[in-house]
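Handout for the seminar on molecular recognition.
Each group receives one record of this type.
Step one: identify the two inputs.
Step two: read the structure output and locate the region that could contact zinc ion.
Step three: write two sentences on what you found, then compare them with the reference statements printed after the record.
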Amino acid sequence: MAELRSFFSRHEDLTQVLLYAGIITSLWFAEIMVSAESIKYKWKHSTVNALFIFTALPIQLLLTTFVILISKWDIAHHWGIINFIPHHRNHWVYYISLFILLDLCEYIYHVTMHKVEALWKFHLVHHSDLKVDVSTTTREHPCETAIRTGFLMLWVFICGPAIGVLILRQTFQSFSNIIAHTEFRLPEKVNRIVGLVFITPNLHHVHHHYQLPYTDCNYGDVLSIWDRLFGTYGKLSKTETVFGIDTHMNEQLNGNFAGVVKLPFQKFERPTQQHNNY
Ligand SMILES: [Zn+2]
Ligand SMILES: [Zn+2]
């Protein structure tokens, strides 16, 4: 038992991957009970999304090495915004300040992925899913995995977090992202309270609506406060929400892994925003 414990503590990355795989699988089975689709459809849909794990893992593991090196450099040189926030070695102030700072960075990252045409081409792969369930969490183009981790290096350089903060944040972020994509929407009254601070499935589902301006709202990663603060908060009922992205509604293409990987390299025109009434 002690050997097993020591193995997992030495392989933190592997432990986290196994933990998330276990959570995603459990939620996937739980979703079958509330899902309107057949198991056969759900399996086919999830297989395409699951394949993205194999492209993301090597990129993520390789680039995380650089994230760790930057964090070590920050600490050694007392570099980063956190050094301007008076935390007087209080762990709570230190961890919470960095958590909020990094969440703001992720909000900026997400807005950038939507607004810069060259980056949107890769992010639209995540949005091209015509059915949002827990498996959508892993649907990320390999180039976006590299871009996202590249941005993380920048955020770590700017903010100056210790590795402990990054591990804690990564854990929160992964849980939050998994939950936000599940089919388990909160009752409206609960959503109104939880959604004041956190991104809920109800809020993230609006972000997956196929048309503007809804695609361009609720960018928040873990916290929803940035959307409220910067005017990108949006509401849409479950019955009005249609998953996907208007430029890529072809079910056959979206259900084919190779086809989806090629999406960013194909020409398409994005409709201009017609209205702005969230
Ligand atoms: Zn998005
Ligand atoms: Zn999403």
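Reference statements: DSSP finds twelve helices and no strands in the chain. The mean pLDDT is 88.
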